[in-house]
Amino acid sequence: MGNPTVDETNTSKTTESLFTNKDPKLAELFPEELIGWHGYVEWDKYPERCQKAHEILTTYKSKFTHIPEFQFEPLPATNPILIGHRWKEYHAVLGPYLKDIPAESWAIVQREKAADMIHVLDFPYNGEPPRNKLMQNKMTPNEYHFVRNHGGIPTIDKTAFTLTIGGLVNKPQILTLADLQDPKKFEPVEVTVTLQCSGTRRIEQIHEYPGEGDELINAPWGEGAIGTARYRGVSLKKVLNVPRRKVEALNEVLLVWEMNGEPLPAIHGAPLRVVVTGFIGARSCKWVLRVNVLNEPSRGPVQQQEYLYYGPQIGKQNALFSNGFSIQEMPVGSAIMTPNDKQVVVHQGKIEMTGWAYSGGGRWIERVDVSADGGHTWLQCDPDDMTEKHYHAWRLWKITLPVLAEGWLELVVRAFDNACNTQPTYVRSVWNWDLHVTSSAHRIKIYSVNASNPATAKRLRQIEENGDSLEPITRPLMFRIESEEHYDKNVKKHKREPEE
Amino acid sequence: MGNPTVDETNTSKTTESLFTNKDPKLAELFPEELIGWHGYVEWDKYPERCQKAHEILTTYKSKFTHIPEFQFEPLPATNPILIGHRWKEYHAVLGPYLKDIPAESWAIVQREKAADMIHVLDFPYNGEPPRNKLMQNKMTPNEYHFVRNHGGIPTIDKTAFTLTIGGLVNKPQILTLADLQDPKKFEPVEVTVTLQCSGTRRIEQIHEYPGEGDELINAPWGEGAIGTARYRGVSLKKVLNVPRRKVEALNEVLLVWEMNGEPLPAIHGAPLRVVVTGFIGARSCKWVLRVNVLNEPSRGPVQQQEYLYYGPQIGKQNALFSNGFSIQEMPVGSAIMTPNDKQVVVHQGKIEMTGWAYSGGGRWIERVDVSADGGHTWLQCDPDDMTEKHYHAWRLWKITLPVLAEGWLELVVRAFDNACNTQPTYVRSVWNWDLHVTSSAHRIKIYSVNASNPATAKRLRQIEENGDSLEPITRPLMFRIESEEHYDKNVKKHKREPEE
Fold this sequence. Notes:
2 copies of one chain form a homodimer.
Chain A: H1 15-18, H2 26-29, E1 37-38, H3 47-60, H4 85-93, H5 101-112, E2 118-121, E3 126-128, H6 131-134, E4 147-148, E5 155-156, E6 162-167, E7 173-176, H7 177-181, E8 189-196, H8 202-208, E9 226-235, H9 236-240, H10 245-248, E10 253-259, E11 262-263, E12 273-276, E13 290-293, H11 301-304, E14 308-309, E15 325-326, E16 333-338, E17 344-347, E18 350-358, E19 365-371, E20 379-380, E21 395-402, E22 407-417, E23 442-450, H12 454-465, H13 484-493
Parallel strand pairs in A: 6-13, 17-23
Antiparallel strand pairs in A: 1-5, 2-3, 3-4, 6-7, 8-9, 9-10, 10-11, 10-12, 14-15, 16-18, 18-21, 19-20, 19-22, 22-23
Domain Moybdenum cofactor oxidoreductase dimerisation (chains A, B): 326-447
Keywords (chains A, B): Metal-binding, Molybdenum, Oxidoreductase
GO biological process, one term (chains A, B): sulfur compound metabolic process
């Protein structure tokens, strides 16, 4: 995925005039009743509220903007790439508190994220960093950490914030942030954690075959929907004081308020979020309000109905919630971050490659192999050129790959984790209707120009002398590529036609 | 791998006359000093004993039988397949106690294992069950459980047996079997565990490209070097009373004395063995004598020098112990157990397939896909046709696969575990010098004869009427396959040559 230019006309303000609902009862119907929380309406406790919202949305149904097709057609070369008009309109007609959420969320993006983020979806905000920015350090700066949202960004007064613990616990409790941060009550922990959206590299599945394509559910992520930070918080098992199987294992559920030594940004869940080590990002809920301990998997939509992994014969024609399995840990995966797909690489017989590799569930990367011939031969990254092992974090890698061949080459990366798991060979092997978990070996195409070949070096000089350019590689050269003498000499030696 | 006929002439007795060492000091040099242990000489504590054995073996070096080549040539169609003459000879020249071990081990095989086991290597004994026997139940009967040995089978008097616990423990201790089995001292546990040799399906790597081929180290396993049993014992962490990272995780180190409700057979480690759940079989030591707690990985040869996973550019020319990584957990894997490779399958448009699927490290199988077209389309096994999920055991699966096509077809299986890990597409992706961890999708070739096709049904009747046979498929039919009238009619309708 390239880094398109920012097109401000694409952003949210335009929808407001088209969709307003002047019903004076809206404030009463959908109140911001939770003290200290702005941009949040409580739905779970009020079925009648859900019903009313459903009625209003049905009234407006025919007027809402159509969800744009983005899989059978090229993605817009804009930034934001997708807008989410329909989701903005939903909020507009359920005002007065909700109507401003899209614009407010966008303002938070502007304040907290880097200017050169790739905005995959304006609202609900989804964004990933430019490829090269992610490779600068194994710790991802907060402003470049990817963001995956299913709704608006609430702003929460941390002094008013409380966490309610209920369900199957011995002692229900309500804790303030100060309670959680009090080392006399709970021992604070710090862990380096890679969070990865299970949609990372989805664009490759889309390029192979389209799948469920709603612009909110299945954002067209590139290789940047992954990031690593050091989180500070407390272990949920200590707070609950009831060890359960999942928390007995290597993976921990943390309640965190600090990210890379800074207070958690609003866009990443301030004042308190969950971080589940070893699990996909979707399990690490932001803006956590309640912990409700159950004796079976939650029936909340994100748990029951989304993040499901289907077989290749399951799709719109037959998918159920129960015939896919729930995606929890990421399998071993990797990506080439430089060079870029379709890049023209002029080199002296060696190409520098960089990228990441990660495996979920407490497993770590043991080996990274790269190939300059589509996967026929593989060269192993030197462990000195890989960042340290962590139970819950990726390893960045780099390698200088000897490349003799010129023209279009397929560069590939595959990783092996400590359980000897590796990646399937082609994208087709992992295609699934919801376009999750693109875990196949990552392949990019580059156009190799090996300047250590004398003929190529000569051509590069000619291009320069003629004021022409190698790129775009698809544009013919504007000067004659061979002299008459040279041509005559060669076709005399190797005649065009057989002698007899 | 087929099930070759037993050829008793291949077994061990023959070597004895050729290699005897009459030195009267042998009994003193290599004594059976451990009370209650027969077939065991203590080496670790006596460097001078190792040196002396090395000297004797060097003296005989030129006389020892050559290790047979079995990778560039077809495997013998005998049972045992490989003999291990050289290892028998090592024991013969180090007698008097060791010389009889090969014959005694073979006698234990005869007593404890099923008559139709496939004896991959006579001595040290390595064997796997016939494919169909492994599929009868998710619990493998003891007599059919695969056996992987690196040496002879000791016989140990369980009343004299003690386990010594030392190294980095607070309190070194010596425990009898009665101590371990006393529920007042240690809580007994029972776990269903699949043990898998990391060499399972090695034969596929050999068929692709040979690797390190010593007949002891790298036995040419088929798909049966895996088995599942219920083990009873105690948790090592309870015995040690020092929790460490590995034992905190899902995987447990058990000390067990019972297998499927029976006392542990001698060949499986009686009276006491280790079972490490979620780890490869090699980590589950048999005939355990001492537990020595270390603060770094052991330098014992099996841990330091064997069971290493190398990249594809590592081999005899450059392999080190430290440039491969240590194989601990198996990745997700699977095998087709019926039909057999190269089998002629006569069917009515549907083929029954059975097999197993397993993932190490506490992960379980979520999905099994099979293909009748080499992996272009995949059909998912119905969860009702798969055995239950266990954290540490395989799932057996079966499926009725619709097959229209006739002729040679490639049937394939691949599994997905709960971390969405799946298997790489082809064997070449996982080839490694030591031929471990054949984790690629399992492929077999069958010759499909679809008797629901009228023309095929007619041919099958003709074959019967003519007293001929379909198999072997490679033998031409002994009757005329088409009448003159039929031929004339067809070549009149569809002429052999163009009209003009």
